[in-house]
């Protein structure tokens, strides 16, 4: 009943979406829903025809397309982000000889957002679980989470898609396995004696998944048909950057990395979404930095890091009997959260007399230790 009232209200008023005009048709109105559902040609996924002549399949497809069209602001963001991220994904799929349609799975999984996560612990563009990501070569630890890296996670996804297709022999089944896990899908195929995605009873999320992918394909390949008239300037440009090699012989601050790149902390984090927290562990890294970063990055980093390390030694506070994190923060007039960041500890960390903390006081402490 609710769905029927929603559709009737939308048809009657045409005012449920009050966003930018680029999401409307040329006459300033949302195209009629029924017209949007009439597919003018056969629909396929990775070259496999979707059996829309099956009424049950058509209903599932129409439901997901309606839901995608209802969330028009999200669809606008799909379109705007596509020019930023799809060129990288398309090139990697092409080099691997995989179908271009697989790129729409990233839309369905994450809406092309690097940091989005699920309650089950999946993260990133392709929503890898930690164990699956590691299995396909991604680093996932307290310092680095390559599930958030477009290139690293797409490389892992390409390898995973190849494995799934080899196992199931169908791209629709490979997509389902990508969503629910290959062992779970294999178990259902064996239990139901069916190896056709459209005839399998699967977890409800997976039953919807491929149709959500297909909805994204329809909207992104025919935006005008669905009332999205973007101009060239509306799309987000690719992220421009260059890369540098960095060797850290000990733990280093990302603020120091940013200073060596002559930019700010946020820019380094945005260009390298796989970097977690405020520090890098000892090791060698290939980092994205602004494209105008001058040469000599490692040399600048070494100098600034040495100064940073020396200053830290001068900022050591020896924990006294009766101290706790809150009293220390109050004593030095700094946010407690800052102490946690400087020392890479959490709020539950137990202090003991004699422990050493790094403190950058905002002003002279109220009482000398």
Structure write-up:
It contains 15 helices and eight strands. The strands form four sheets. Strands 1-2 form a two-stranded antiparallel sheet. It has a two-stranded antiparallel ribbon with strand order 3-6. It is mostly helical and 369 residues long. The N terminus and C terminus are likely disordered. A hairpin with a 2-residue loop joins strand 1 and strand 2. The protein folds into three domains: 216 residues, Lysozyme (Orthogonal Bundle); 73 residues, no CATH class; 43 residues, LysM domain (Membrane-bound Lytic Murein Transglycosylase D, Chain A, Roll). The protein is 48% helix and 8% strand.
CATH topology of the largest domain: Lysozyme
Strand content: 5-15%
Number of domains: 3
Give the H and E element order.
HHEEHHHHHHHHEEHHEEHEHHE
Shape estimate: elongated
Catalogue the unreliable spans: 1-25, 364-369
What's the architecture of the largest domain, going by CATH? Answer: Orthogonal Bundle
Structural class: mainly alpha
CATH class of the largest domain: Mainly Alpha
User: Given the structure, what is the number of helices?
Assistant: 15
What is the terminal-to-terminal distance?
69 Å
Which features characterize this protein?
disordered C terminus; two-stranded antiparallel ribbon; Lysozyme; mainly alpha
Brief account:
The protein is 48% helix and 8% strand.
Strand and helix layout:
Layout: H1 2-13, H2 33-37, E1 44-45, E2 48-49, H3 55-70, H4 72-95, H5 103-110, H6 130-135, H7 150-168, H8 171-180, H9 182-192, H10 204-221, E3 242-248, E4 252-253, H11 254-260, H12 265-271, E5 279-280, E6 283-289, H13 297-314, E7 316-318, H14 325-332, H15 336-343, E8 356-358
Antiparallel strand pairs: 1-2, 3-6, 4-5, 7-8
């Amino acid at each position: 009943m609710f769905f029927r009232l929603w559709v009737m209200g939308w048809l009657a008023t045409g005012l449920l979406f009050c966003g930018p005009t680029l999401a409307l048709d040329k006459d300033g109105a949302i195209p009629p829903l029924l017209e949007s559902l009439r597919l003018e040609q056969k629909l396929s996924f990775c070259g496999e025809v979707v059996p829309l002549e099956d009424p049950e399949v058509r209903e599932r497809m129409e439901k997901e397309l309606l839901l995608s069209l209802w969330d028009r602001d999200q669809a606008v963001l799909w379109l705007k982000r596509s020019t930023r991220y799809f060129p990288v994904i398309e090139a990697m799929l092409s080099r691997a000889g995989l179908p271009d349609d697989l790129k729409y799975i990233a839309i369905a999984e994450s809406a092309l957002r690097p940091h989005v996560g699920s309650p089950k612990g999946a993260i990133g563009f392709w929503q890898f679980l930690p164990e699956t990501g590691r299995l396909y070569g991604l680093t996932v630890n307290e310092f680095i989470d390559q599930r958030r890296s477009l290139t690293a996670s797409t490389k892992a996804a390409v390898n995973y898609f190849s494995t799934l297709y080899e196992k199931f022999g169908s791209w629709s089944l490979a997509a389902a396995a990508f969503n629910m896990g290959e062992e779970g899908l294999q178990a259902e195929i064996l239990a139901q004696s069916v190896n056709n995605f459209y005839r399998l009873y699967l977890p409800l999320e997976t039953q919807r998944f491929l149709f959500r992918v297909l909805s994204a394909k329809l909207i992104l390949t025919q935006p005008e048909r669905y009332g999205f008239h973007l101009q060239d300037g509306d799309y987000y440009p690719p992220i421009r950057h260059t890369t540098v090699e960095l060797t850290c012989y000990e733990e280093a601050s990302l603020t120091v990395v940013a200073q060596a790149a002559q930019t700010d902390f946020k820019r380094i984090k945005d260009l390298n979404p796989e970097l977690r927290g405020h520090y890098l562990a000892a090791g060698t890294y290939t980092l994205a930095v602004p494209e105008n970063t001058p040469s000599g990055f490692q040399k600048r980093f070494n100098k600034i890091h040495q100064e940073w390390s020396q200053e830290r030694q001068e900022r050591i506070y020896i924990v006294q009997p009766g101290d706790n994190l809150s009293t220390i923060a109050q004593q030095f007039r700094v946010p407690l959260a800052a102490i946690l960041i400087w020392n890479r500890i959490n709020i539950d960390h137990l202090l003991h007399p004699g422990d050493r903390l790094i403190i950058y006081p905002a002003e002279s402490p109220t009482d000398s230790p």
